[in-house]
Write a structure and sequence with these properties.
The chain has helices at 6-14, 19-33, 72-84, 103-117, 130-138, 153-159, 170-180, 198-210, 242-255, 265-270, 275-280, 307-310, 317-326; strands at residues 36-39, 41-46, 89-94, 120-124, 143-145, 184-187, 190-191, 215-216, 219-220, 262-263, 286-287, 330-332. The mean pLDDT is 96. The protein has 13 helices and twelve strands. The longest helix has 15 residues, at 19-33. By secondary structure, it is of the alpha/beta class. The structure holds S-adenosyl-L-homocysteine (SAH).
Amino acid sequence: MADMTREAILEWLRAPQAEALFERARAKRVCTKGRGVFLRGLIELSSICSRDCLYCGMRKSNPRVVRYAMDDETILACARLAERLHFGTVVLQAGECAALWSRERVAELIRRIKGETGQRVTLSLGERSEADTEAWRAAGADRYLLRFETSDRALFARIHPGASESGEHPRMVQLRRMKAQGYEVGSGIMLGLPGQRLESVADDLLMFRDLALDMVGLGPYLVHPDTPLGVDAMQSEVPVSVDFTCRCYALARLLLPEANIPSTTALSTLDPVRGRIAGLSSGANVFMPNLTPAELRAGYQIYPGKICVAAPEADSLAALQRTFAQLGLEQVVG
Ligand code: SAH
């Protein structure tokens, strides 16, 4: 299955229904990863961003965002919570702001989190220099998440001001570089972007395998009305649905049998009742509960109605454990 062709992938993306695909992905997941679900505590360090990505609610030109930045002690407190809950890993994510998240400050944060809480550290701080990621790796960072969003170069350039349409995809350059630096590397895409085509999603999925990703994060594109893309009337060939998202989880699982694949917050936001059950039933084996202090979460609305803002109890540990039990899965530390 890991040698699946572009045509076979497209067939699944277009098929009237994909129950047999989900079945195969579930079996593969149990075979390679067992029945465990890894929890990663997501800490959203700051909603201050110097970028203007056309789809993202946190873009710098959106005046409605409540901008915040956590101090080091608050971040450490979130990491201690992850330790108490036996997560094993924290994910430090933020809007891009090199002034706020300097090489030295992040390196010191990594050292403190690892030293004081024993949690593994995953970074998700956007496009950064080789020297920055090198220093953070040396400080003990284990993993880095950077979605390439789409492998369609024209579409990527259209939604990322300043990105060029030619040459290698800038995020793929960084992903390959971080792989060489010894990170476990994660990437992914959004599904249903205006102008996105099914063929390009097939290419994205094949690119996951080509990059030999350790982690794959993908979710539906959710319209944010205060963004340029949110008012773009252009249609997408790619459906924004639980079913389609899960087909991509399943295909990612078959292409990369060993990868860690989260059932994402965007999927749970699209369908708070069925989202994560469907995700964990189609090949995903990771869930990322939000550990950002509740009073700050509303500031980090990359899309509206984020489940951890609208219904903070939905990803409580008790609710999660009920879901896992229902599916014959269990939380594991790692
Ligand atoms: N600044 C960091 C973190 C960005 S938020 C970085 O660039 O890596 C993490 C992910 O959220 C993005 O990579 C993107 O795939 C997703 N995202 C942003 N806006 C979204 C939207 N409107 N709908 C769905 N997902 C979105």
